[in-house]
Amino acid sequence: MAFVDEAKFHVKAGDGGNGCVSFRREKFVPKGGPDGGDGGRGGSVVIVATSKIHSLIDFRFRSHFKADRGVHGKGKDMHGAGGKDCIINVPVGSIITDSESGNILADLAQENDSFIAAKGGDGGMGNPHFASGANRTPRFATKGKEGQQRWLRIELKLIADVGLLGLPNAGKSTLLSKLSAANPKIADYPFTTLEPQLGVMHYSYHKPCIIADIPGLIEGAHEGVGLGHKFLRHIERTSILLHVVDCSDDKYMENFETIENELLSYKEELAGRLRFVVLNKIDLVDPEMVEEVKTEFRELGHTVFAISCENEQNIEPLKKAVMELLEEFHLSERTDGDQEV
């Protein structure tokens, strides 16, 4: 199934039902008076975030969403029923913006977050509302108001605990398959991964965490070069980052700095995000050389793990370290929240 993370769509709320002009006609009850019912309220279009969906694929096949209109009022004080709301389920992490102005209208970052994208029109009033001493037989009622309608844009930013980043062919997809039960496409050519991949990592006595493999970034990604410009935003909501570096490449440090510069150019805050440097493919490098590379990164202040996805060397220690860092991160978040209160 294709991964869709942007879409444009139209929403139309239901119109309100019309009020009714009616008079009571009953035997032995002269001059019964007005008894027209009110019209029902039109249904609204409501967007709801759910963790059961991970893509905006439904928007590829449907771009117009319309709620039901309210039922017209009837005689004998019978009010019209309200129109049924149109519920649009979207993934957690969706951002709704106005298509014309570009203003952000809602950020649905939590499960069951909702946003009324288009409000239903009020129902019209029946003629009893207009009866008075001067006019006991009003022969008019009001029409229901039109429901709101507009074009919106939706953008998905994946919410994951861990984000994998690195140059194409650094081994991110293979690492994702080793850390989780995900089964991404793996091949020995660049840009194998054309869309973000998610996996769930389990480790004993720890809460499972979500890992996102961000498609290969290259130099100039923040300006729209390659695939990365479409997916850089998915890194924003990760708690920690694993920067995967192919240490069998002689330009390993240059490759590392390329990605770091892209993160800094895209959003400065990402440069300070918690991260591990993961040196992959150590099975292809002399052990002494691996130690030299590790030392080089440690001198720059990075926490380094040297692994081999091919023979699963040091995968378990990496899992443990990631889980422990996540727990520290969430603990510090809770502590900061208590202090703010």
What does this structure look like?
This protein is α/β, with parallel strands linked by helices and 341 residues long. The protein folds into 2 domains: 6-156, GTP1/OBG domain (Spo0b-associated Gtp-binding Protein, Chain: A, Distorted Sandwich), CATH 2.70.210.12; 162-340, Rossmann fold (3-Layer(aba) Sandwich), CATH 3.40.50. The protein has helices at 58-61, 172-179, 228-231, 252-266, 287-298, 315-340; strands at residues 6-12, 45-50, 64-66, 86-91, 94-98, 104-108, 114-118, 149-156, 162-165, 197-201, 209-213, 240-246, 275-280, 304-306. The longest helix is centred in the last third of the chain and has 26 residues, at 315-340. The chain is rod-shaped and about 105 Å long.
